[in-house]
Amino acid sequence: MLYIELARVYARLEETPGKIEKTQIIAEVLKDADEELLGILAGLLMGRVFPEWSGLELGVGPSMLYEAIAFVCGSSPREVKQAVAEAGDAGSAAEAMLKRKVQRTLFSKKLTVEEVYGTFEKIARASGKGSHDRKLKLLAELLSHAEPLEGRYIVRTVLGELRVGVAEGLVRDAIALAFSVPSHAVERAYMLCGDFGKVARIAKHAGERGLAEVRMSPGTPVKPMLAQLAPSLEKVLEELRKAAVEVKYDGARVQIHKKGEKLWIFSRRLENVTDALPDVAERARRCILAEEAVVEGEAVAVDPETGKPRAFQEILRRFRRKYEVRKMAAQIPFEVYLFDALYLNGEMLIDLSFEERRRRLEQAVEQEHGFELAEQLVTSSVKEAEGFYEKALEMGHEGIMLKSLSAPYVPGARVGYMYKLKALMETLDLVITGAVWGTGKRAGWLSSYELSARDEDTGELLPVGRVGTGVTEEQLQEFTDMLKPLIISQEAEEVRLKPEVVVEVAYQEIQRSPNYASGFALRFPRVVRVREDKSPEEADTLQRVRELYESQGR
Ligand code: AMP
Prior knowledge:
This protein has helices spanning about 5-15, 20-30, 35-45, 60-75, 75-85, 90-100, 115-125, 130-145, 150-160, 170-180, 185-195, 195-210, 235-240, 280-285, 310-320, 325-330, 355-365, 380-395, 475-485, 540-550, and strands at about 230, 245-250, 250-260, 260-265, 290-300, 335-345, 345-350, 370-375, 375-380, 400-405, 420, 430-435, 445-455, 460-465, 485-490, 495, 500-505, 510, 520-525, 525-530. With about 550 residues, the protein is of the alpha+beta class.
């Protein structure tokens, strides 16, 4: 398929606001696509080049991109920046610049989708010494063959801001429409294998039955089931009647997979972090008795001297560590508290009740200190649950989880099977999409960060407020270092940023507001921490902001 055809599809999607029409457009593309291409297309249509768990990232920031555009269009990075600021969008700016470019060479070839993807792959794989130049060269070469419209979408894809209003739900529905299978069957298969391309191929060849046969397999991470905010202990117990009440450990979620001698640990983002956590891997090898397993738990960092949980940042430092991992493991030892089993010895457990899954988990694991099952109390009594909650808080935990005993595990979904109750006010994880260059005491620092939530339907990021407080001078420097390479454009002191950094934000209240495109505004927002374990795709959604807004009234 020629890339220009895909670019025209993007343009149509951009002009089409309706969800149904958008779904039809995507379905047509998928229906006509070659087998091989389906895999790539499903991601590209959402503006995603590689699946999260592939470990591949382009690693191209705005400044390298502008350098490439400047090189191809015979201008300077400064001029490109200027053009982006004027157009308000890097893609449109690149398009306009490519239009003005002097005479295209006669040898300029037509780009295919496969070639564009292949170049993206090469860019992602360039690492180590000289990788900057290599990435730049590949990018410039790609853009030099691009027609203006193609340039618009290549640039936006690189920046992670496709702006055509396509999110996962639309691709799911389009696969269903294209190959006449139910949406829920597509959804389930996707959650189990994490690959829309694969799902589309199965839907095409084997229909609904084929999709139903998609199995979890150790080594391929599964999207985790998410928790809902408990309105109150009483309400949840009233709804569930009897619930499993568990300690909510404050660490990072891990999904541990085992297949014979092989062992994998995946983060919440489904990154493979096995090499960074040799101590957890060793314990898992020793304690998981089942030959094959997929289990979930929370990894908590404990201070060996005080026995108290350590800060979240320290946990993440270990997750990201590439060198001297053993030393780090000794400095910041982890304990793991398991809370679910998804697969054991060839059997997928997700459709079983939580009560049964927990029973199987107990059988499959030989517990030892540091590799244990989450502390649990099964009760229907509010009083008992309250006692457990207070005890959990006293021990320094975040709060409790309340789980339905009869519910299945629904990958990737925030259904009312699992509730969390925390002592502190619920926070939001939002994407930083803009900032302002500080003045006076804050000169030279990026401050006042624009916070955005993702609209689940369109994938678009919409601002819900700005945050400046809760940031120390040291953090200002840290944020500036982190955000400066992400600057897409600047107008006066105001910068727009490539959406990459997710922060956890506390606030006093959510208000309705005409000032922001989202329709909501946070009152007195404050940065709690950077959520390096979350990608912008995983940040909280606008739908969740609305949910929290509505729950305030209660
Ligand atoms: P939150 O990240 O605030 O939405 O809370 C849900 C997270 O709590 C899960 O993704 C887990 O990482 C974590 N967690 C801690 N303890 C438990 C537990 N006993 N059961 C389930 N999740 C837990």
